[in-house]
Structure formats: structure tokens, C-alpha cells
Amino acid sequence: MSSFLSFLKPQNMSLFTDYYELTMCASYFDNKNFEPATFDLFIRRLPENRSYFLFAGLDEALQYLQSIKFTEEHLAYLKKQGFRPDFLDYLGGFKFTGEAWTVPEGTVAFPNEPLIRVTAPIIEAQLVETFLLNTINLQTMIATKASRVVQAAKGKSVIEFGLRREPGIDAGMKVARSSYIAGCQGTSNVLAGMAYGIPVFGTLAHSFIMSYPKEIDAFRAFAKTFPNKSTLLIDTYDDIAGAEKAVIVAKELEAKGFRLGGVRLDSGDLAQTSKKVRKILDDRGLSYVKIFASGDLDEFKITQLLNEGARIDAFGVGTKMGTSADRPYLDVIYKLCETMTANGSFSPIMKLSKDKITLPGRKQVYRFKSKDGGFSRDVIALADEHMEGEALLVKVMENGKLSRELPSLEQIRVVASENLAKLPAEYKQLMNAPTYPVELSQKLQTLIETTKFQLTKNEINRRVI
After folding, report:
1. What is the pLDDT of residues 285-312, one digit of tens each?
2. Which helix (H) or strand (E) holds 333?
3. I need a surface site. Which of 159, 246, 283, 362 has the fewest CB within 10 A?
4. Quick check: 264 and 232 in contact, CB under 8 A?
């Protein structure tokens, strides 16, 4: 049997889907349903203690749409699952030929706003659902969480440290990228550093300290190897005693023309210990040595530390950010909003399920700003409406190919920073933030009522028949 790693290649992603996507597509094919349809990808509701989303994962989603195809190996496997030869022949020549409209990656977004709008033959649009939901869910969830952590740090550096507890290789890469988009300064993930050009950071583990007979011997050994960029972990045995030994090593480095980069605290009362360590360092003329803190941190713990006057210069945030531990998923949705009728025109469609009603028709999101440039409200409108606000959805794919150049990771990071800066402070509160106003245009409201009436009428007629 092939290893999991052998499947982590772009050409294998066509089978990264739920089985029912393929069964629906097989039935569409069998019934000769190749007409275009439009689907919206959006997030239905905000999790508790979230007041916005930071949209991430678009780059990977678009690369997937461009590259999806079925290999002979895929088709052989699907044949074993009972799919008919004619459908497998169709899949052998499959490629995405539709168009996609999206909000830019790094955009602040809110519930029910279309983030991606796909229009394509219904088999194509249906088949890509699972991948789009999976990649947007994880990356938007992490980017949103990381933005809250960065906000809580109030300008102090945040490094993403969660690789060893993130759920798998794929997630580890996406977490590093999404956290960087959200404002983290870098990651401990070396592969992500190479793949994405993200700065990488790391110190040393307690095991390194414990492998030496004396703590100071470990400090000296590490500083010898990295005289220009050592950060010493000082709490293996006793944090204050560790700080005193770090001072000795720092002075030894100074004598050789180098500087100790920092010391790291990973346990205990970080606020009080950081104050004591800062005094020890400053009293010895080592004000340039930074204090780095880690250990079960998140936005709430960082806020508490800073409120207590902690003398911490940078934070390493791992598990709770890398898994979005308090809110580990988003209610991300991909729903049909229009189909083509027999006469060749598009007809709006909507879901009427209780608490899961969707919005019909092709839509656009307009963002309005206050006089100072901050975001004031959004309006979800029909795609053919024109409003004075900024239209967020832009065409990025046509005929299955990119219609505009994708931004670099650094450009996406700038978009995210600018968006978060324009979001008023009250919406960035960690708890009890007010609800950002998202309205429906009058035309969309009218379409909702007429579509609902027509669907209900049709259902009554079907029951009579």
C-alpha cells in the first residue's frame, strides 16, 4: 500500500473529496445534466467570541481549480468502487472550465457574505466542493485566531510555534502560512519557511539543557555554535538562577564581540518572573537582551500577561493558536444559488431548511467606509446591482484559467494588515464585541421573497400531483 505522503501531490487532489460528490456527479452525467450552475462558498455564522473572519486559503483553492485531473490510477480505483465505464471516460478528460469570483485573500469578512462564487457546468462545480470547503475552513479559521493573538500582543512579536501539535503535515504547512498572513512574524516550521519564504525562529529545548552536567555548560555550548543569535531557555531548573547564568554567558559573548539575543521563559508565573529577569538583565547592562515567552499561550493569556505588566518582548504561541483550540472549526458552506433553465436563462434557487436558509442568485458584497476610512457596514446585493461602496468580489478565473495574477504572500499579508487596521476597534474585542452590520439590498430581499414563494408553490403543486 502506498504511504500517505505519496498522495500529498497536486495531481492526486482530485480524489480529495467526499464520496457523495462523485456519486452525484455520476448521476448528473447519467442524466445528461451538464448545464451551468452557480455555487456560493460562505460562512454561515460566527463562532462564540469571534466578531469577524480573516479570509485565507484562496491561493491553494485556485491552484486546485486549475490543476484538478484524474489519473489512470485514480480511474482504476474508482472502477473498483463500481462507477460505470462511460463516466470514468468522462473523468479521464475532466478539467475545470468555469469561472470564479472571490474576495481577495486577507480580507476581513462576515457571516453569509460570499467569499468564493463558482459558475461552471454543474458536474464541475459540484465536484470541487469538498476541497474548497476543507482548505478555506482550516486556513480562515487559523488566520482569524492568529489575528486575535497578534492583536492581543499589542505590537510585540508573535511566532507560530504549534507544529508538533497541529493535526498533520498538511495542517502544519497551512497553519504557518495562515498565521503569517494574520501578522505573526514567523514560524518554527522549517519546511514552511522554505516553501513560503516565511522567517523561521527557534531556541533550544529542555532536553538540550538536561543533556549537560551543568546548565551553564549547555548555555556555553549553544552560544558557541550560535554566537550571533542565541536565545537561552532559562527555566529548566530555576528561572532566576538560569537568568544569572545567562548573564555570565552574555558577558562572555560581549568579550568576543557578540551579543546574546534573548532568554526564554516557558513555565511558571510568566508576568512576575519576566519582571525579575528584566531587572537582572538591566542591572548588568544587558538591556538589549530580549525576553521571549512561551507555554500554553493564546490571546486571552497574552492579554492577561500584559495587563499584569509582564516584561516580555515576544511570544511563541503554539497549540492553542495552531489548532484554534477554543473554536476548532467554522460553519463554512458551499451552496447552490442558481441553475440554468430549459430556455437557457439562469434561475435563482435557495435552500429553505429551518435555520439553514440560503440566499438566491448571483451576489456581490459592497463595503462602505466612514469618513476616517474605517469599515462601517457591508451590503450583500445582487451581482447586477451597482452601489457606491467597494465591490469585494472580483473575477479571478475564466474558462478554467486564472484571469489575473495571484498576489504574493507578502502582498496578501499587507492586505490583511490594512483590513484589520480599518476594522474599528470595538469589533476586535476578544469578548462581547458588537455585531458588524451586514445588510441585504432591497432587490435581494425581494428576490428572496419571490423565490421562496415560487419554491413553496411548486412544492405544493408537486404534492397535489
Report:
1. 999 999 999 999 999 999 999 999 999 9
2. strand 332-340
3. 283
4. yes
